[in-house]
Design goal:
single chain, two-stranded antiparallel sheet
């Protein structure tokens, strides 16, 4: 831990968070394609990820996702590959396993 509650990540000094961790991995490994499952509002995390190509999935009709559908439906039609995926969907072990 650095000064004032921040850590040194590969993309700079930031407070530890899920966003900082994903951005660290994106920066460290040069990831370009990011998928977020369970986005709800893009401004909360999705828009803060530094990967150049970002895709979001959430079944809620009011979600600001690129794809308003379940992750099962998304994967059934998806042809893309992603470098890094953040899974924050149904919050059940079974669904996380299916998403992986």
């Amino acid at each position: 831990m650095g000064t004032h509650g921040t850590y040194v990540f590969s993309h700079g000094r930031h407070p530890a968070s899920r966003i900082s961790l994903v951005n660290h991995l994106v920066s460290l490994y040069g990831y370009e394609d990011y998928l977020e499952i369970g986005v709800r509002r893009k401004a909360d995390m999705h828009d803060k990820i530094i990967a150049p190509n970002r895709v979001s999935v959430d079944p809620a009709e009011d979600a600001e996702a690129d794809f308003n559908m379940t992750s099962d439906d998304f994967f059934a039609q998806n042809k893309r590959e992603f470098d890094i995926v953040f899974i924050d969907g149904l919050h059940t072990g079974e669904q996380v396993y299916l998403d992986i």
